[in-house]
Amino acid sequence: MPEPKLTPLGVMVLxxxxxxxMHPYEMVRLxxxxxxxxxxxxxxxxxxxxxxxxxxxxxxxxxxTDREGxxxxxxxxxxxxxxxxxMHSWIREExxxxxxxxxxxxxxxxxxxVERDDAVALLRIRRVALAxxxxxxxxxxxxxxxxxxxxxxxxxxxxxxxxLDAEVVWLDALLSRLGADxxxxxxxxxxxxxxxxxxxxxxxx
Length: 205
Hints:
Layout: H1 8-19, H2 24-33, H3 44-56, E1 60-66, E2 74-79, H4 81-96, H5 101-109, H6 116-146, H7 155-179, H8 194-204
Antiparallel strand pairs: 1-2
Helix pairs in contact: 1-4, 2-3, 2-8, 4-5, 4-6, 6-7
């Protein structure tokens, strides 16, 4: 069977189901409560379509239905082993890549779903690629200036070099914090907090 192609929204849904079994309505509410619309477009239609597609791919499975009062029947879904592996593979691939910034933001948001050491190793690979790319821009910018290319044509290159340099600095600081265990990692870092439990309860209603 070919490797399932996940969307960023699909990865975030799988990550939610790694926390607990949920119905789509709860997924939508949690994504909005956590302001994940910064990263992916979240609508009832797109999420239900995503859930149905991953159900067909065997990444999630139905584990129950319920109805409360006059509310529509709700189907609860769980993460399968295939879904867990697909989510891990997607996050691991995107953490080290520098050519897909939108996907990287989602991978970074869900990086706590892989082992800390794995995340650190992948981010170090990314750091090397970023530094190399920054040097390419730096050399190209200097070469263009030496050739007398007008500054107005170099603005975008200058901006990109600045962004690359800034991300390298930020990434060095993050890797230092991860190496020193300053950032709680994985489910132990949040699943038993009062804030998390209150958020889950509110989303499920």
